[in-house]
């Protein structure tokens, strides 16, 4: 078992571009660490530095307490699983899985035993004699994992291994990868731009932007307590609704455009730092799942309601995505644009929706809200998020 420590790890290319800046991470034995962020944030570069495929400009990389900056990839005892599987098409599944063992001159009987053990873990016993071209995408991904498993490495590195699979298979495979990793107990770095993958697979998730670490914590903590607008926008699907707002002088209400949301006493107790923002402009974040159809809400929200013009209703079976417009100022910043540039939902949304849908609510499928109507939403005011309008940092203590 091996721990991995990244101490101010930095990568600067010869043209002066800083891809990763002073990245600090400590990954425990057996921990599943996910690096997530939009394209160009530095996550793959960080992974390649750990693998030894990119030279480290500054900082230290330690594995098991030993500095490995100058060691070759082979000497670091890592196994890397790539996006394109990198299988040998002329070899059988068994030969692909056992190829690294063959290079190490492991005896044939021992090699067959290790390959069989990996195949059983991954459900590949019946495919051992097939060639990669005869396999499905998910099976080829399992073969790539098997090749890594038989090496018994100190560290696993995975670079967007599911990006070539269809949506249904990705869901299945991410569960299988997480299960196998926990069974083997090997420290793992997993790179993805998909925040759903990150949230469902990682013991902890490191959110990167422009080469800098924004926040690293358990998935639920990232969701409940994002440290800034970028993390708040990136974590959660659909993304958080963000508006300019003004906190009342007594701190009991917050105003969005012409509407006012009453704040329960619990908000003031949870966020004492909010008192400094009384009678000031700040940024207010509302997650879509913290808005309800007021007509169906069994709770009295005690003044915590919003009304908006409904632009689109998407029926997803178990729930409705209701796109609406308020007369408040929606926040569109460089942070939120970068956070959403790889959002699959945003990419699939119609141009019409993206042009005028200022907010989205995730409501019960029994709702009668319809296109081009008027909606009244209950606000779970104790779940609101507040950010400084200038720094975009979360308001807390």
Architecture blueprint of SSEs:
Layout: E1 4-12, E2 18-27, E3 32-36, H1 43-51, E4 58-63, E5 66-67, E6 78-81, H2 93-103, H3 108-122, H4 137-150, E7 155-159, H5 167-184, E8 187-192, H6 195-201, E9 204-209, E10 212-217, H7 219-224, H8 229-234, E11 241-247, E12 253-256, E13 259-262, H9 265-270, E14 281-286, E15 291-293, E16 305-315, E17 319-325, H10 334-340, H11 344-348, H12 351-356, E18 359-364, E19 374-379, E20 385-387
Parallel strand pairs: 3-8, 3-9, 6-7, 7-8
Antiparallel strand pairs: 1-2, 1-4, 4-5, 9-10, 11-12, 11-14, 12-13, 14-20, 15-19, 16-17, 16-19, 17-18
Helix pairs in contact: 2-3, 2-4, 3-4, 4-5
Instruction: Give helix % range.
Output: 25-40%
Largest pleated sheet: 6 strands, mixed
Radius of gyration: 24 Å
- Quaternary state reads single chain
Structural shape: elongated
């Amino acid at each position: 078992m091996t721990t991995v420590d990244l101490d101010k790890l930095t990568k600067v290319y010869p043209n002066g571009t800083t891809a990763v800046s002073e990245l600090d991470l400590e990954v425990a034995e057996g921990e599943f660490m996910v690096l997530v962020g939009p394209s160009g944030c530095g996550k793959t570069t960080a992974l390649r530095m750990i693998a030894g495929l990119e030279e480290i400009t500054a900082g230290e990389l330690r594995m098991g307490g030993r500095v490995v900056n100058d060691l070759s990839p082979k000497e670091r005892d890592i196994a890397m699983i790539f996006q394109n599987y990198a299988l040998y098409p002329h070899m059988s599944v068994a030969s692909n899985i056992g190829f690294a063992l063959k290079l190490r001159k492991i005896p044939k009987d021992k090699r067959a035993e290790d390959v069989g053990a990996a195949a059983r873990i991954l459900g590949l016993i019946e495919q051992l004699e097939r060639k990669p071209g005869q396999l499905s995408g998910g099976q080829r991904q399992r073969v790539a994992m098997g090749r890594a498993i038989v090496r018994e490495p100190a560290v696993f590195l995975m670079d967007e291994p599911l990006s070539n699979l269809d949506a249904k298979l990705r869901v299945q495979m991410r569960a299988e990868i997480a299960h196998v990793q926990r069974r083997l107990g090997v420290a793992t770095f997993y790179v993805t731009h998909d925040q759903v993958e990150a949230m469902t697979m990682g013991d902890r998730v490191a959110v990167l932007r422009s080469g800098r670490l924004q926040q690293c914590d358990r998935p639920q903590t990232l969701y409940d307590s994002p440290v800034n607008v970028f993390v708040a926008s990136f974590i959660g699907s659909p993304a958080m609704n963000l508006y300019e707002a003004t906190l009342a002088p007594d701190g009991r209400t917050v105003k969005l455009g012409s509407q006012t949301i009453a704040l329960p006493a619990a908000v003031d107790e949870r966020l004492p730092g909010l008192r400094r923002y009384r009678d000031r402009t700040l940024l207010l974040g509302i997650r879509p799942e913290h808005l309800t159809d007021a007509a169906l809400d069994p709770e009295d929200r005690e003044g915590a309601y919003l009304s908006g013009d409904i632009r689109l209703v998407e029926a997803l079976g178990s729930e409705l995505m209701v796109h609406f417009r308020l007369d408040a100022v929606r926040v569109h910043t460089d942070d939120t644009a970068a956070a959403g540039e790889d959002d699959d939902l945003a990419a699939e949304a119609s141009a019409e929706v993206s042009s005028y849908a200022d907010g989205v609510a995730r409501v019960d499928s029994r709702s009668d809200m319809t296109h081009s109507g008027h909606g009244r939403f209950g606000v779970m005011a104790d779940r609101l998020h507040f950010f400084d309008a200038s720094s975009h940092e979360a308001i807390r203590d």
